[in-house]
Write a structure and sequence with these properties.
The chain has helices at residues 35-42, 118-121, 153-164, 179-185, 198-206, 275-291, 308-320, and strands at 23-33, 56-64, 84-88, 101-105, 109-111, 145-148, 170-173, 189-191, 225-229, 232-235, 244-246, 262-266, 300-302, 328-332. The chain is an alpha/beta fold and 336 residues long. Strands 1, 2, 3, 4, 5, 13 and 14 form a seven-stranded mixed β-sheet that branches. Strands 6-7-8 form a three-stranded parallel β-sheet, sandwiched between helices. The radius of gyration is 21 Å and the shape is globular. It binds NADP nicotinamide-adenine-dinucleotide phosphate. NADP nicotinamide-adenine-dinucleotide phosphate binds at residues 34-36, 39, 148-149, 151-155, 173-175, 178, 193, 229-230, 233, 266-269, 324-326. Pfam families: ADH_N. InterPro entries: ADH-like_N, ER, GroES-like_sf, NAD(P)-bd_dom_sf, Trans-enoyl_RdTase-like.
Length: 336
């Protein structure tokens, strides 16, 4: 007998966790879907079920726990009930963004500036000396920095953040439709990765590239650093195909990097290993960058569907189909 059923249905209710010392409870209004959700949903990264996905949230504080005597106070004013905040948190299930209330440490949230919508702020959570010292110039300000994937959320913020810190030789690779915006954000030169001679175009401007395939040995310059935002996707997740991912850059392109090139895996999830970033990145740095207009949130593609689960499912499907281009998938968690 033929039957029809939705791809997902509501099954789990989770208790709202009371705030412990240093924590706040946030009523979540908006969240954003990123490749990390897809890696977790399809990439065998989750072993215990039920599991709540979601790394970012924007909403309103509904409860503030007692002070944590061991916490380092933020530079900004203390959070209060009613404050509009956004945050990046995913280390415990009570923090994950795809639920109507999250209970999170205060330092994993920051106030949303008044002129910014929650759906714009929720695209942001994540990355640098702070505040930028007056007249600060990096000794490497004129060295070429290549950002491959500059239209993606990570790449887009990297270009803006580097521009804010005074780097002025930024080479951005993205499809042509994003070039004008990337130039406005600070890219010095832009390249289209769909053009067959893109590597030669970059070499003509930057003079060398650290990967051996299309260029000659004389392009080799020891000391080049390649920052790879992991996981490296070997095969992308598709509707019926599991992705193949690796966190270890030494297992890909083996023997193809030129001598003297340093390949560094980047894991933003561990930003709290840096004591300063732990206590200030979300409460102070991100709100200040937004207030100053130093970074502009990603463009948002709003996912519309009747229920939270349908919106979550639609977002995962769009990620599987690799639809997002220069935009973040953003959707409502609660309607009030
Ligand atoms: N380890 C960590 O802490 C961490 C943190 C965040 C993200 N990540 C990972 O970093 C990756 C990027 O994340 P994201 O949030 O920036 O993704 P995203 O916004 O969904 O990336 C989409 C963009 O990728 C670009 N793209 C696709 N194929 C490309 C190619 N061959 N060359 C250049 N650009 C290409 C597309 O550019 P066009 O529109 O120009 O086609 C598109 O705009 C993901 O794998 C994610 O899991 C890791």
């Amino acid at each position: 007998m033929a039957c029809s059923y939705p791809p997902a249905h509501a099954a789990v209710v989770v208790p709202t966790e009371a705030p412990q010392p240093g924590e706040v409870v946030v009523k979540v209004q908006w969240t954003a879907s990123s490749p990390a959700d897809l890696h977790q949903a399809d990439g065998n990264l989750v072993t215990d079920y039920p599991f709540i996905l979601g790394c970012s949230f924007a909403g309103t504080i509904v409860a503030v726990g007692p002070e944590d005597p061991s916490a380092v106070a933020p530079d900004s004013k203390s959070l209060e009930v009613g404050d509009r905040v956004c945050g990046y948190a995913m280390w415990q299930q009570k923090q994950s963004g795809f639920q109507t209330y999250v209970t999170v440490p205060r330092h994993m949230t920051g106030r949303i500036p008044e002129n910014l919508s929650m759906e714009a702020a929720v695209t942001l959570p994540v990355n640098l000396p702070w505040p930028v010292p007056p007249n600060y110039t990096s000794q490497e300000a004129d060295k070429p920095i290549l950002v491959w994937g500059a239209a993606g959320s990570v790449g887009n913020y990297i270009v803006q953040v580097l521009r804010h810190w005074g780097y002025r030789n930024l080479l951005a690779v993205a499809s042509k439709k994003h070039h004008n915006e990337l130039k406005r954000f600070g890219a010095t030169e832009v390249f289209d990765y769909s053009e067959s001679n893109v590597v030669e175009q970059i070499l003509a401007v930057a003079g060398h590239i650290p990967y051996d395939a299309p260029s000659s040995q004389q392009d080799c310059r020891p000391g080049t650093r390649v920052a790879v935002v992991v996981p490296i996707v070997i095969h992308h997740a598709m509707t019926k195909v599991e992705p193949q991912l690796t966190r270890d850059p030494s297992t890909v392109l083996v023997g193809e990097w030129k001598d003297g090139v340093e390949v560094i895996p980047i894991m933003t999830f561990f930003y709290q290993d840096n004591e300063y970033f732990k206590w200030h990145l979300q409460p102070d740095v991100i709100p200040a960058l937004l207030r100053a207009g130093a970074i502009k949130p990603n463009k948002q593609r709003i996912i519309e569907a009747e229920t939270l689960l349908e919106r979550a499912q639609q977002a995962l499907n769009l990620l599987r189909e690799r639809v997002p281009s220069g935009e973040r998938l953003v959707w409502r968690i609660s309607d009030s």
